[in-house]
Fold each of these.
Amino acid sequence: MLTNTDRRFAPLASALRRVAVSTLALASSVLLAAAAQAGGLEAPVIGCEQADEMVEITQSSRLDPSCEWTGGIRVVASDVTLDCQDARIVSTNVRYGIHIIAPVDTPLSNVTVRNCHVEGFLNCIHIEREGFRELPAGEEYENTFSNIVIEDGSVLNSRGVGLYVNGYVTDVTVRRLHIEGTGSSGIYLETGSRANFIEDNEIVNNGFRENGPGGQFFELAGTTFFFWGPGREGVAIDGSRDNVVRNNYFEGNSSGAILLYKNCGEFPDSNRYFERRYGSHGNVIEGNTFVGGDNGVWVASRMAENTIPMECTDPQYATGFVLDHADDNTVRGNLFENVTYPVRVEDDGTIVEDNEFVSDDPAHLAVLVGTPVRTSVLGLPVDRTRISGNQARIEGNQTPYRWVHGHADTTFANNRSFGDAVGFCEGEPPARGPFVMAIEFVQAERDDPPQREAPTLPTPRPLAACPTCRGDCNADGVVTVDDLVRAVRVALGEIDADTCSLVDRDNDGAADIAELMAAVDTALNGCVRAG
Ligand SMILES: [Ca+2]
Ligand SMILES: [Ca+2]
Ligand SMILES: [Ca+2]
């Protein structure tokens, strides 16, 4: 595990490593070419005379790393490995650095792209099933992609998304990449993509251009506006499901680390429009490290955002509001350091377990569950969240597990703060912009941007510790007969103490008489303040 200081110098270190590695690679390519001539099976090297052309890869190949590759590379066949040998692939006026592509009626499998350093394109790496927008419902996965691996390299300073996994693309593994400085999201998992693996990457300092703090123009109802936004996230999971995001390092991404949401069927008149059929369901986010920033993992990040400028085709249930869709996701075993809202939950069935939250800012939280508009207009609070086994050490915040606007059927068990079992209690709603991905907007003249500093959303204030209800097994704020029955069963050893951690205050795995009496006292007299 690298320390924070090491991380700060990671770009420099990786640049030095790249120089060293490309020197080695150059030497080894000479040796390997000799081996190939001697009857070895090494893939042929594509020479620098093609470095400014678009190169199409149909068989396993290596790049000569002694030149910069500027024409872009297309990988169009199965069973191939492209080894860039640490070559740099840099943008001139081409859209994609490496484009892995097959028509929708053609399966693609066993493609590996490794040791490529791709920089400055619209998308540095783009994986696409050509024609996917026209796939009929129910026939999206008849000719899938499988075992597509992108490993060991870097994606830097793309104009848009860094690495784009486009619609209905499956089984892509992205591992050990350094992804930095992208204009939009670092990695984008597009609608209908599924079962991809994002592992062991460093995803840092991305997302400052698109909807970013520098501001941009937009037109609405024939009027020109200028708006400033929060920028984009490290990983966007947009209507993409059953993915695993594991053991990555996130720091310094503009709007947050991982946002899960569903595109609302925006901009139907755009040539990029297609029907968005799937939510971001069943994803697993585990073993990652998140450092700093406003949002760590935000489940259903558009549930309560006003999307009116996006011309959503999904039905509005209130002016500007459509349902977002991100169910049954798991956030497990991650470390969050100094993140304002480490885990935000605005859709149902989320599991938040065995995470660790540390911070030196008392305004920071661990978990925040709840969503305003769906709750108040449709009477549908976030439900079936399971929060268990988490540990928090947030200086000045003894009770960092919070809900807002109501919640339903929450399981809350064995969550600790500075080692004590604590409750789940009401917090304060986070600040939101006037509409999705916007912090503030003004009417403006085209080509005459307002000259002022980027506005920011107000930061949250520290909250008073909330009462912990001793014996409140289901953490709903009252001790009922049901809670007491469960507490007694813990005392009798019939059920595990973790199922009612708020009776077992001293965390010895049992409920003794004093702990049972405290539960009874709470039932009779109400909750007591924590501590
Ligand atoms: Ca839902
Ligand atoms: Ca209760
Ligand atoms: Ca005990």
Note: The radius of gyration is 25 Å.
Amino acid sequence: MANSDNKRRKFMATTLQSVGLTALGGLLWSGYSDEVKASPLVLRPPGALPEEDFLKACIKCGLCAEACENRDSNINKDGTKRAGTLKMAKGGDHKMIGTPFFIPTEIPCYMCDDIPCVPVCPSGALDMPSLLNKKEELDINKARMGLAVVHKESCIAFWGIQCDACYRACPIQGEAITIEHQKNERTGKHAFLLPIVHSDVCTGCGLCEKACVTEKPAIFVLPIEHSTGRAGDHYVKGWDEKDQQRVKDAKEIHTKDERSEKEATDYLNMGVEY
Ligand code: SF4
Ligand code: SF4
Ligand code: SF4
């Protein structure tokens, strides 16, 4: 009898172990496949390092998301809280699990003046110095969470319909987005009032995307790497003194390098007779 009990216990233990291992394997696999499928189009909190460095630095503690949820403006009069902007990625989000991100169409970043999500970051994944202005104060206008881009074909302002929802929602109105007047050649009477985003000012907060009236937002925020091009160093703006200086400096460095290489070879060959 004792022998059969022992056998039953052993059988149960082995079964549970294999179920546990299968479940663990499943979890690990879903975590792994989620990382593999992780979308590069992820928007990170203000001050986040470039994506690759961010992923290395972030220890997935969630303090930024907690601070975002607990920010003063997020607490109702009765003490209850609304959901914060920042979410921590979980399985199925197609983001690196445990890392903070936000989706503007759900909850954009409200560009808090005191940026509470950043100073709490213990790892430097959210880089406070990058958000300091000349007075050494935290300045949310220096954040570059992404860049808003306008899809002209679906933006109804480009159809001639009057709409400035994105312009009105922008916290840096008149600088990050301006409205450009353009003559409507088709009617000859009306003007297009076109939203234009300025990449040197836009923080990527996503308030414009959230406010857009079209079925799928015609203005949307993408990570900077995915919303900008690069002309390459060999193109020079002839009208821009800074750009000309950049090319001059690059040439000087190049010549200096060549010279030092030559000097090094001369030194090595000193006293060598052929
Ligand atoms: S700055 Fe944006 S992400 Fe940070 S706490 Fe405020 S709303 Fe949240
Ligand atoms: S506080 Fe910093 S380290 Fe912690 S989850 Fe947020 S970004 Fe990552
Ligand atoms: S993302 Fe939109 S609302 Fe935010 S700063 Fe840029 S243009 Fe303005």
Note: The first strand starts at residue 87 and ends at 88.
Amino acid sequence: MRRDQLEHLIRAAGQVLDADTVIVIGSQAFLASVPAGLPPEAVRSIEADILPIDDPDETKADLIDGLLGEASTFQETHGIYAQGVGQRTARLPEGWQDRLVALRNENTGGVTGKCLEPHDVLRIQPRGMTHRIFRGLDVPTCGETMVGLHRLRSFEECVSEVLSDGVPGDFVEAGAWRGGTAILMRAVLKTYHVTDRKVFVADSFRGLPPPKRRYGADRGDRLWADTRLAVSLAEVRANFARYGLLDDQVAFIEGWFSESLKAAPIERLAVLRLDADMYESTLDALEVLYPKVSPGGFVIVDDYGALEAGRRAGHD
Ligand SMILES: C[S@@+](CC[C@H](N)C(=O)[O-])C[C@H]1O[C@@H](n2cnc3c(N)ncnc32)[C@H](O)[C@@H]1O
């Protein structure tokens, strides 16, 4: 990573956390102390460790992982990524805060990256395996789903469990993107030779709505402008077809959740999966669909552990 790339990452991390200061630990922190630059072998890494300030439950570190982390849209666009680090991830040398080296210029956009002093970098002691992939926080963008393997496994267990427990109802994914997770649901039904349940795939099929003023949790959300999140119905249908899983057990509900779900022919649900990234979208879907979930069924809010908007909608 070059110094200007680290500066860009500091700026992005500050924006994601709505903070004017972030801490950079790990080897990329060297870049702040060596303005002339490092030798080529030292700048090969494309990852920098960001330690958010005041993050006792590590939710801010998770946010960094989700939005700027490995396989994120940010990495896809800029070729570099951040790993959110929590206080539990690394033990830092005594007095490290007093030796931080500030990196701030027009490239960091008003955010100060406080970088660990080089000797302190060498004295960091990891505290064990806390990588986000093992915590189900990765968001890969190269496949049919941006849900990482850990979450997919747990989701598959939910679908299998309601089948083996005989929990009545169909399955919904609200927020399908390329369709991968809904394709998995249909595949599980096929595996167990279930022919009397449906998979409903609900999406605008044109991305997210712009945030509305009345929903504070969505304030400043820019995902509506991200055209990569707009995947057409034709493309999602083609993805189902490629796996031989496009049939009359799959139904598509096209449109904004605020309008489309009320009219959808959904009576009872065994699994409700919500993955819509925004407070408004998550709440709209929950309000209509939650009352239809059978006792013993599952409600999964994918964003609950990653995005404040998802967590708040789940609680509200
Ligand atoms: C994070 S992606 C879903 C990822 C997907 N579950 C997967 O397996 O990769 C969010 C999706 O929610 C959809 N979406 C968000 N808000 C919506 C709304 N209010 N109405 C309809 N679709 C919405 C977007 O179009 C997008 O496809």
Note: The pocket of S-adenosylmethionine is lined by residues 145-147, 173, 175-177, 180-181, 203-204, 207-209, 229, 231, 256-257, 275-278, 281, 284 (CB under 6 Å).
